[in-house]
């Protein structure tokens, strides 16, 4: 027979299969295989419209929950030094170890950050990484954190966003400001001395 899925539900089905395929590159567990197999039931021509809608939305919720088991916590950081290591938490709620690459992509040149290669997250655990950050210019910027497959360098789960707000002032700017303040103070003293002499 022919599947009765509407175009939006077909797209949802395709997106869900792709999400599970990406995840299976780094996660080898029966629960992932079983969910992929259950998605095929949506193509059955025996389902009526209400059943197709219900099972499609349920499948999307199940896939979202499965993908959410491997993630990096988003966060906001305040930086007050020119070089610092910030904690980044990676969570693996699967019952198997997962080995991944973690790509750090700042959206501006205000900061320089390091990425991580071949990070192994034990089953059902959290792992805290230290992200090296070097501040080039003060201000706010965001860093996209992407979990990649070590072999194919492909994105596995939706990215996380880190917001960095740096209040670091470059030492050259500090010296310039301090020098200008001293010159102003000397000028004020000299003017006061002239007034006293008059």
Could you please describe the fold and organization of this structure?
Helix content is about 35%, strand content about 30%. It has 4 helices and 9 strands. A 5-stranded mixed β-sheet has the order 2-9-8-4-6, with no helix packed on it. A 4-stranded antiparallel β-sheet has the order 1-3-7-5, with no helix packed on it. The chain is elongated. The N and C termini lie far apart (about 110 Å).
Portion of residues in beta strands equals 25-35%
Summarize the biggest pleated sheet.
Answer: 5 strands, mixed
Distance between the termini: 108 Å
The quaternary structure here is single chain
Question: For the CA atoms, what is the radius of gyration?
Answer: 27 Å
Structural class: alpha+beta
Average of pLDDT: 87
* Number of helices, where a helix is a run of at least 4 consecutive DSSP H or I residues: 4
Low-pLDDT sequence parts:
none
Approximate shape: elongated
Helix content: 25-40%
Helix-strand string: HHHEEEEEEEEEH
Total strand segments: 9
Question: What spatial order of strands do you see in the largest sheet?
Answer: 2-9-8-4-6
From the structure above, extract its key features.
198 residues, alpha+beta, five-stranded mixed sheet, four-stranded antiparallel sheet, 4 helices, elongated
